[in-house]
Structure prediction request, 118 residues.
Amino acid sequence: MIEIDPSSPKPPFEQLRSAVIAAVREGTLAPGAKLPPVRRLAEDLGLAANTVARAYRELEADGVVVTRGRNGTVIAETGDAAHQTLQRAATDYAATAARLGVDADEALAIVEAAMRAH
Prediction:
């Protein structure tokens, strides 16, 4: 959950930008994860829509997110082609596991077993 500290000397758009980058580094936001629409996130955080839009623009300029028009803003894939392929596969696997009702621990155990088998 992203929180904005109104008493911080750091501007709100920068707090949001930094929070998204931190979540990506921690793995909380994986490549392909969809960010909330600008207006909804602005409302949730008590910010102006232009503030959230600025943070999204700066994240896109930094290559952290990709905006796909009406399809929204998603976390960008990073690294070389092999790494990007693995990120896409992991995102697909996570979506399949969730759709099948498999929790994260069990899904990770299945991946670990598959890795050991190879």
Q: What stands out?
A: The chain has five helices and two strands. Residues 79-118 form one domain. The first strand starts at residue 65 and ends at 67.
